[in-house]
Amino acid sequence: MPRKLLLALTAVVVVVVALTGGAWAADRARGVELAGQELKPGVIEQVAAGYGTTPVVVHTPDGDLRTTAAELGMTVDVAATRKAADDARSGGPTDWFRGVRARRSTPLVVVTDAERVRGVVRAKDPTKRTNAVEPSVQGSADGVAVVRGKPGKGLNAETVAAAVRDAARGGDRPVEADVEAEPLAPRFSLADAERLAERARSLASEPLDVRAGTATATIGSKTLRSWIRSNDDMELALDVDATQAELRIALAAATAPSQDASIHIEAGRPVIVPGRSGTTCCTDQAPTRILAALLHRPTTAVSLPVRSTEPDRTTDEVQTLKIVEPIGSFTTRHPAGQPRVTNIHRIADLIDGTIIGPGGRFSVNDKVGERTTAKGFVSDHSIADGVFVETVGGGISQFATTLFNAAFFGGLDVPTYQAHSIYISRYPYGREATLSWTKPDLVISNTTPYGVLIDTSYTSTTLTVTLWSTKYATGAQTAQSEAPLGNCKRVTTERTRTYVDGHTKVDHVYATYRPAEGVKC
Questions:
Q1: Average of per-residue pLDDT across 490-518
Q2: Which of 149, 191, 389, 465 has the most other CB atoms within 10 Å of its CB?
Q3: Model confidence over 196-208: pLDDT tens digits?
Q4: pLDDT in tens, 281-329
Q5: In whole angstroms, what is the distance from residue 302 CA to residue 295 CA?
Q6: Pairing mode, if any, of strands 325-333 and 182-184?
Q7: Are 59 and 49 in contact (CB under 8 A)?
């Protein structure tokens, strides 16, 4: 080749190389893509900002696990992705020239949150999953034992995390990965549990002094051991329910019950008695403080915070009930000095002051429970299936009849009641009620917008029940009829309720009377 031509070609090559090198130096990023976008400034941050909504699908032979990047704690590692992009740009002019003709891609680097992945896999695993059972530490009064763990089978959270991270590198949305179920070993070994158990035995070997308010107690080693458990991370923990239950007993002196606001009738008018807050041992912090004391034995008693308890019915709530005047009252009479009088007075005392809220329901049996000698009731006559018998609490039907009639004239609903099967002359004919445990019951419904107070009073020969509220309706007996029912008599009593707006409503109560003891209808 002539020397002049060679020099000319060399010059051209130098110029081309110079031009190519200059273009490569000026724009190394051209031809590099990230998640389908040309890698310009800010693209990595843009992809990272919206990545949480990315759908993630894990395909298994048993079905798909569908979730999102956010649920897996899956985020773009901006620094690692930028480094990968820099690596893609780091070739020489020849690599750059190839990139001009065919774009190069840089991987999207993501990280996952191990705890979140575990939670999603446990909750959504489509395989026939059996979770591994971790070995555990179980305390009792007799000692601290170790319970062996068991392997399981299903999706492995670490395998799933690795698979979705790898699938995410291409930047595709949704992220799709294929994973199969595999044996799942417990995270902790039997030896781990044994070491924790030995530590627990040592920590609970001595009693622990505790106090709450002015109450103090010493919790013995057996009790401390019985509270000990291990948690899912093979750490020492306490059985919260057992700890709280036994602390309440040991520190019972720290408990002062709250008192509901109530209403008493004084000098013929209702007076509100304010409610009162109470205290009880202990707050939810108590087990945590006990555990801390076991780990770092204090030199003084462990101080446990008491829980403040509020009344179920506050003073403000009682004021809104508008219990201001009597709406219905009834008095029945009985002979003095009989055992049944003790029962009448006892049930009257138990129910006195009861408030039925607007729309509420009051059951005598729910309130008083079974009549027993432990509750102050004695034995006397009652009627069972048309026959007079002796029962504890006999005679309390006097109270049921008196309350029934107070509600009848007070315009309240009485959805549940039963008249005596034999008529007793001291009660209003056809308009009375009996009681027994568990049936029959007497239930009063308050369908008014106001509260209703049950006020009871008695003498040696009388019982009075007065209902206090704001007048809403009044009841009156407006008719009564009888009809035979086999050997018995069916009595229908008509009530007309007149409401404060002037409209009326008619309803009926019923009684079925046998002609004599032992006679069937």
A1: 95
A2: 465
A3: 999 999 999 999 9
A4: 999 999 999 999 999 999 999 999 999 999 999 999 999 999 999 999 9
A5: 12
A6: unpaired
A7: no
Q: Name residue 122's amino acid.
A: R
> How is residue 49 written in tokens?
């900002």
Answer yes or no: pTM beyond 0.70.
no
State which fold the 204-312 domain adopts.
Answer: Ubiquitin-like (UB roll) (3.10.20)
The answer to whether residues 408 and 495 touch, using CB atoms and an 8 Å cutoff, is yes
Q: What are phi and psi of 136, to 5 degrees?
A: -145, 165
What does the pLDDT read at residue 139?
Answer: 96
- Examine the pLDDT at 105 and tell me if it is beyond 90: no
Is the distance from CB of 216 to CB of 228 less than 8 angstroms?
A: no
Structure tokens at 349: 């005392």
Which run of H or E residues covers position 8?
A: helix 3-26
DSSP, collapsed to helix, strand or coil, labels residue 28 as coil
Per cent of the chain over pLDDT 70 is 90
**And the tokens for 262?**
């109530």
The sheet carrying 208-212 orders its strands as 215-219, 208-212, 302-303
Strands (E), 148-221: 152-154, 175-178, 182-184, 208-212, 215-219
Angular region, 353: left φ>0, alpha ψ -120 to 50, beta rest: left
Q: Is the pLDDT of residue 13 over 70?
A: no
Using DSSP, state whether 304 is helix, strand or coil: coil
CB 41: neighbour CB atoms within 10 A?
7
Question: What digits encode the pLDDT tens for the residues 30-69?
Answer: 567 887 778 888 889 999 999 999 999 999 999 999 999 9
Alpha helices in 90-151 (DSSP H): 93-101, 114-124
What would the pLDDT profile of 501-511 be if each residue is shown by its tens digit?
Answer: 999 999 999 99
Tokens of residue 289, six digits: 């403080």
Tokens 């039963």, residue located: 418
Residue 370: pLDDT above 70? yes
Pairing of strands 104-105, 32-34: parallel
By the 8 A CB rule, do 491 and 390 touch? Answer: no
Distances in Å between the alpha carbon of 269 and those of 160, 182, 324?
A: 74, 77, 8
Cβ atoms within 10 Å, residue 326: 18
Domain with CATH 3.10.20 in the chain: 204-312
Can you read off the two tokens belonging to residue 64?
């798909």
